[in-house]
Amino acid sequence: ISNPLPHRVRKMRKGTRSCTECRRRKTRCVYPPGDPVCVLCKSRDGRCIEQGYEDVGISESKSSVPRKQPANEKASQGRNGTSADQPPKFSGDAETSDVLVSERANYAPIVSLLLLDRDQRMYPPFLLPLEDKSAYVCSTIRSMLPGYDTIMSVLTKNGSWWDSFRSKAYAISEAPSQTIEAFCKRTYTSSNPADIGALAVAFARSLNKHRYLYTLVDDLVISDINYTATIEGLECLILLAKSYTDCGQPKRAWLVWRKGASATQLMGLCCGKNYSRTELRLWCAIYHGDRFCSMLLGLPYVLNDNHYQSVLTAAGMGQGFYFVLRCAIICGRIIDRNMTAGKPSFAKAMELDEELSSIASTQPEDWWSVPESMDHFQLQGLELSDFRELLLQQFYFFWVKLYLHLPFLVESTASSPHYFSRMACIESAKQILRRYRLLRCKNKSGSCLFECKTTDFACFTAAVVLLISTFHCSAVGRSSSVDEDLELVATTDRLLLGEEVQNECKVAAQCRKVLQTLSLNDPITADESREVIIPFFGAVIRK
């Protein structure tokens, strides 16, 4: 008897049913009920090839044929009658082993993932070549959008947020004058998934609904590093993260910002001294967004200042750009303090407060003065859009200062060294609500200067600070202007009520409920001690 050929498949014992890949990996081959493909092969999107002489895809022939067919007969059947859903039948005879060696390679579990010319339909989109996948992503997103005229009409009618977004993000391009109509014309006919994704996000943002488009773009575009690690991909990412923030989903925005930070690091963006203004704007937009969401949610940030000193000290940008950037740097140091175990250091807080004062001194005194209402808006030489950005920059400054002194708000008597922090926290809350009143003031067309549900929540926390300082502290530590404080809180409550009634905003409804509880307006529980849990803020025990 001659020795068996090296290519002959060893026969398995009777009753054994195991595919070649599971045997190679020395794992158990598990078949779901009624499924001819084992669990592990399905998870790898590979072909499940049985070790024996039978075709695993033909279960009926296994039960009807009591004996196995000759190997050479099976090989000829495999060459002549292979279907698209079934792998060819292999044998180990010398007559067919060399002939089928290429077919063996093509249907190997690993190689089969790379050969897509046999049947494209059997592979998921993430295994397609980049060009085919891009076409698939574009067609999928386009199928969820209406026609061009409808999109243009919606963006033109409800696109008042666009100018604010472009200037607030410090990104998108070196041509800040691009209108939303020009953006629509450019992206609608584009074959770049990032452009189509940005158009879908802008459409949903303008309608203030269809938020499933956010998830679709997040899954198909932002989650693919091939698209994200480009200038257009980062533009789409920034728009998506800002839209998540505006619609009151800071957790999703935080996740998107982290994806953007990873993309900039893989691109090597701003890692040295050679970078363009566009790259600097894109990087800073992600840097600012990550710091804002991280401090709001009480989570760590992702971009370390020590790794980007050349960017943080770069020259050639406007004064407002550096004002916000320096505030974001302080924001990161406050996050470091909050993430450290133990009580916060008052000395460190005073050091950061001095740095904030230094930042404030870079702006002239008249820059900080704002009108009581939009009816008295008479700032000469200042456009309405510029005034909005001025308010947002001041808002960010006082918000950072409020979080800096927030740990020292309660139980600070006049003789306590923490009394300074307490008063600074209260004053910052007042300044925030004054600017919020202007940002939310509606004009004749019914639109306001700035609309963002996450900003609404940030202003709600400022109102909570004023209520705590008024009703839930000792008389010695109360604010000297209680009436003014309560008027600011009442104005905030009215603005939140309008948002709740007109837009059915659940965030505004929950914020108003907490404000009413802390204002002691609830007669049933007015005399009871009650713990009020405020997300991303803490617990307030009303006594």
UniProtKB/TrEMBL annotation:
The keyword Transport does not apply. One of its GO terms (molecular function) is zinc ion binding. Residues 18-50 form the Zn(2)-C6 fungal-type domain. Keywords: Nucleus, Transcription, Transcription regulation. Residues 59-96 are annotated as: Disordered. This is Zn(2)-C6 fungal-type domain-containing protein. PROSITE patterns: ZN2_CY6_FUNGAL_1, ZN2_CY6_FUNGAL_2. Residues 74-85 have a biased composition (Polar residues). The keyword Signal does not apply. It comes from the Eukaryota.
